[in-house]
Amino acid sequence: MNISAPFTKKIIAFLVFSCFVNISAKAQENNVKQKSAFWQKVRVGGGIGLGFGDGFFSGTLAPSAIYQFDDQFALGITLNTTYNKRKNAYKSTILGGGIIGLYNPIPEIQLSGEFEQLHVNRDFDSSYVSNLDETYWSPALFLGAGYRSQNFTIGIRYDVLYDDDKSVYGSAWIPFVRVYF
Q1: φ and ψ at 32, to 5 degrees?
Q2: Residue 133 to residues 7, 44, 57, 124, 138, Cα–Cα distance (Å)
Q3: Which of 24, 71, 124, 159 could make a disulfide contact with 129, Cβ separation 3.0–4.6 Å?
């Protein structure tokens, strides 16, 4: 049996190509597994707030994502967008974000630290108050504690940088509800 050189080259080329495809598929499969291992530890959540009153409206959307390092530690980012309006008085737009760290010394207790930087734009109705329009950055550093049950945490946090004149919150003490999936 005499196998010609061109036929032998084709067989060798086919075998090399098959090995290359197989190695590439394995590398891609490992890469997907590594990505999925990362994303399995990412949890998303956030908050939605609506407020209504006598000529008043407030709406907040605050998504966040954390990376769960282990059963005790998580670190993540937050975003915040809020719109407030009081009829014939003012409107404000608040945009910003922050960094949040969570620590669970036991599964039921969650301690948190969160730094938030918000850009505030307040526009007053000229017939209500004049020359008080303002645009500024408002930092907040929250330290909090809460009771946790699975993905749900309820608690209170304190803004150590609270400023009566510039803070977007009504008090340094703020209750919270966190949900992460």
Answers
A1: -65, -40
A2: 83, 35, 19, 6, 15
A3: 124
Give the class (CATH, top level) of 42-179.
mainly beta
Place of tokens 């599964």: 107
Contacts of 123 (CB under 8 A, 6+ apart): 90, 91, 92, 133
The 3-state secondary structure of the chain reads CCCCHHHHHHHHHHHHHHHHHHHHHHHHHHHHHHHHHHHCCEEEEEEEEEEEECCEEEEEEEEEEEEECCCCEEEEEEEEEEEEEECCCEEEEEEEEEEEEEEEEECCEEEEEEEEEEEEEEEECCCCCCCCCEEEEEEEEEEEEEEEECCEEEEEEEECCCCCCCCCCCCCEEEEEEEEC
- Stated pTM of the model: 0.75
**pLDDT tens by residue, 121-145:** 988 887 766 667 889 999 999 999 9
d(CA 60, CA 76): 19
